[in-house]
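Re: Re: ligand-bound prediction request (bumping)

Still looking for help on this. To restate: I need the protein modeled with pyridoxal-5'-phosphate bound, output as structure tokens. Inputs repeated here so nobody has to scroll up.
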Amino acid sequence: MVFELNEIKTREKGLSLINHKITNYGMNSLIDLTGLAGGFDITSEDITMLETYAGPAVFDEKIQQLGKEHLGGEKILPLNRTTSGIAAMIIALVKPGTKIVHYLPEKPGHPSIPRTAELIGAEYVEYSNLDEFTIDDNTSLVVITGTTMDYEIISIEDFEYVINKAHEKDITVFVDDASGARLRRAIYDQPTAIDLGADLSVTSTDKLMEGPRGGLMAGSAKLIDEIKLVVNQYGWEAQAPLVAGMIKGLEKYSPERIQEAFKQKDELYKMLISQGVDARKTPTGFMFKEEDIKNELEKRGMTIDLPTDLLATIYSMLLLSMYSIITIPAVGMPGASKTIRIDWSSKDSSKLSMDDLIFAIMDTFDHVIEVILEGEIEETLYLED
Ligand SMILES: *Cc1c(COP(=O)(O)O)cnc(C)c1O
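Reply:
Sorry for the wait, this slipped through. Here it is.
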């Protein structure tokens, strides 16, 4: 039997498991270690404001100020998602038939970039090696990812090199700094993308900060206005309630939790090694890529002929159903990375000890094997019809 992962259905299953746990055991029973826990800490005063015409005006002024402090730039554009900001930016700035060149520390880039390139009929190329990196003459946009979906961080030298190469040719540089706007800065003390010379940058307001899912773009007033027009035409702007939540997230943000996790991750890593498990370090925890999950299962004596994205999703789903630990593959949007990433800077890491976490990680490998041997893959991944 051939299994192909249906990501719409796995997400429905993941959300249903979460809902079931909340209903039966309360919100506190969940342990979200995605680093994307979000937050919507608005007050009743904010709500009163939202009910009047004053709301959007007041919130807009605040988000301009806080956004500029966080990202730099002259003007801030709050978005429904980072994805919608990326799409609008490409539609506004890239002409059909021209080329988008993307440099990132490790492929692939976020799917919103190639998808929008295809939509408007632009060419798209990714480089993760500066020796190969070239900007052809018909290039209309250079994209840099500051920190990838798997938390690979660009070095400041590479960052500046790519920006300079693009600007030598007068090409606009856009930085996808979804998590990088905090990770790069908190851990490596790097400047904002705009301060490094980029023309535009975008960040996700739920990544490594306690804000709602949304996007925040920064740049020159001229470029932001061009993009804002497209954003409004397609209905991709952040509505006032979202902006109110972003403001609280930005006000609360401090890099300390990220810095603390950066120190503690070595200990977690050692504990895994002592159990014979090969994880990869991330700046704030550890991760297993799809193929690592397969390797770990094979180490336990299994020969597996199943796609690695499927294995990683089963792993994530079982970690959720048995240990209430949330990782991205079980609940992510279609196309999201299938890496099992444990972000120890997540607020919820205080709900369990390092020993508890390592136990859950080990035990879940055994349960994946059981599910495969018992032929229970579909029940594990999908809701019953
Ligand atoms: C998360 C992420 C995005 C998209 O954010 P959404 O909130 O899903 O729209 C884009 N680029 C990178 C590098 C990301 O990590």
